[in-house]
């Protein structure tokens, strides 16, 4: 075990995400990156460790990490013409591709896409996030790793046979899976990875406390 | 970087000293946060999750107490080596585990815990905790009715910004906190933050944040107010 302390006042939360695309079990693409634990995530953490009142003790929030969601926005989208063409524009407005994963003020996925649901304008039965696997695992005592497998017909379904993914977010349990615009606690942009019915995506997201 | 712990020392209500310090968020604190993030089990249909689905969390404890001690590297008072402090709060019970493997090396001499290098030794507890109220018996024979930590209503939490939680704690010696017979003056020099699972009835509980500071001689006419920010950067 290495000494990993830094004598700083602020508690650091470092975020790493690994995305693996598999076709019939064989790895066909990988993306990995250091990304950002955003301001909303820090705000959530300060509430998570606090009581609103004592005697009786009332927690300020009980929300925990629960969902992941994808988008086709962000600065690393390398196929903007594809992202801005039908059928994706049926329900995802044309984007600015402006959002970075170095800006802590990022609050949402820029152009979220559905995990499952219909086509055309959003409806309440759409699902915009996938639930992570439980239990959370700890590769080291001071980290937590969250996993989610997006199967072949998630994200890419119906008319959306190829979806040029380029951003991913991590959400806590008070987010609502049927809403498009939930606040992220961590965010990453990555070079476009087109999701088709041919493959599944495994996302492994680790938060390290330092 | 701005300090995150401010200690104001008053005598008969008048401010006579102030410390501005930097704390350490301990390894135990880091492990606590990692375990707070996720869940062990989620009920309901994973393909159609609902906010109302039952969940089982890994832990559910939160910031709740602050403790004081007379140990730490900045302790400079000879009172700590004389009775009654040396008998009620003896050295030799705080662990000293060192890097790289942190296997237990031994027990401290009473002034080893420091915030400059908090892994040498690894800080897990206060080095020489003192009671808020109770008996004057040594650590090993202290009854469970002793109170070792400041709790609500003398401790409360606020948010000074969206990215911090601030612990406010008052040690009021004029009301008998810490300074009570036979302790006429107590030279405090370390403090720690605890979760509610630590309780208040045992001296050596694991803390999540630690600070050591130049000795404050706490007398019966004094109070000490802590303003302790826990910040996420």
Structural summary, described in words:
Chain A has 210 residues and is mostly beta strands. Chain A contains two helices and eleven strands; from the N terminus they run E-E-E-H-E-E-E-H-E-E-E-E-E. Chain A has one domain. Chain A is 7% helix and 38% strand. Chain A has an eight-stranded antiparallel sheet with strand order 7-6-9-10-3-2-11-8. In chain A, a hairpin with a 2-residue loop joins strand 2 and strand 3. The model of chain A is unreliable at 1-7 (pLDDT under 50). Chain B has 233 residues and is mainly beta. Chain B has one domain (5-37, 55-231). Chain B is built from two helices and 14 strands. The longest helix of chain B is centred in the first third of the chain and has 11 residues, at 27-37. At the A-B interface, strand 1, helix 1, strand 6, strand 8 and strand 11 of A face strand 3, helix 1, strand 4, strand 10 and strand 14 of B. Strand 1 of chain A pairs parallel with strand 14 (222-232) of chain B, so a sheet runs across the interface.
């Amino acid at each position: 075990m290495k000494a990993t302390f830094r004598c700083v006042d602020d508690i650091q939360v470092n975020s790493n995400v690994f995305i693996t695309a598999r076709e019939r079990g064989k790895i066909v693409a990988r993306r990995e990156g250091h990304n950002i634990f955003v301001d909303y995530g820090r705000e959530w953490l300060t509430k998570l460790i606090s009581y609103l009142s004592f005697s009786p003790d009332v927690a300020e929030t009980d929300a925990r990490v629960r969902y992941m969601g994808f988008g086709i926005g962000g600065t690393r989208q390398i196929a903007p013409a594809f992202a801005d063409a039908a059928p994706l524009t049926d329900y995802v407005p044309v984007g600015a591709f402006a959002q970075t994963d170095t800006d802590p003020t990022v609050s949402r996925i820029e152009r979220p896409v559905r995990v499952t649901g219909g086509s055309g304008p959003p409806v309440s039965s759409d699902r915009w996030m996938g639930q992570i696997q439980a239990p959370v695992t700890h590769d080291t005592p001071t980290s937590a790793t969250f996993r989610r497998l997006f199967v072949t017909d998630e994200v890419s379904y119906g008319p959306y046979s190829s979806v040029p993914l380029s951003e991913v977010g991590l959400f806590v349990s008070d987010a609502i899976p049927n809403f498009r615009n939930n606040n992220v606690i961590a965010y990453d942009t990555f070079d476009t990875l087109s999701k088709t019915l041919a493959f599944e995506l495994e996302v492994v997201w680790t938060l390290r406390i330092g | 970087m701005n300090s995150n712990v401010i200690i104001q020392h008053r005598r008969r209500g008048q401010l006579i000293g102030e410390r501005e310090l930097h704390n350490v968020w301990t390894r135990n604190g880091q492990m606590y946060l990692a375990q707070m993030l996720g869940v062990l089990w989620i009920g309901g249909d994973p393909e159609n999750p609902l906010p109302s689905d039952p969940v089982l969390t890994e832990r559910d404890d939160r910031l709740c107490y602050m403790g004081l001690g007379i140990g730490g590297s900045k302790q400079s008072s000879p009172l700590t080596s004389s009775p009654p402090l040396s008998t009620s709060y003896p050295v030799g019970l705080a662990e000293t585990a060192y890097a790289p493997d942190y296997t237990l090396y031994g027990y401290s001499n009473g002034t080893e815990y420091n915030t400059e290098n908090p892994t040498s030794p690894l800080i897990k507890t206060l080095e020489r905790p003192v009671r808020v109220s109770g008996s004057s018996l040594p650590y090993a024979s202290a009854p469970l009715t002793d109170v070792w930590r400041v709790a609500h209503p003398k401790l409360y939490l606020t948010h000074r910004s969206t990215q911090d939680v601030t612990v406010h704690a008052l040690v009021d010696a004029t009301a008998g906190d810490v300074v009570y017979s036979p302790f006429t003056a107590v030279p405090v020099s370390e403090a720690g933050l605890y979760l509610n699972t630590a309780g208040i009835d045992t001296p050596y509980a694991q803390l999540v944040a630690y600070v050591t500071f130049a000795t404050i001689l706490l007398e019966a006419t004094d109070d000490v107010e802590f303003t302790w920010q826990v910040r996420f950067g």
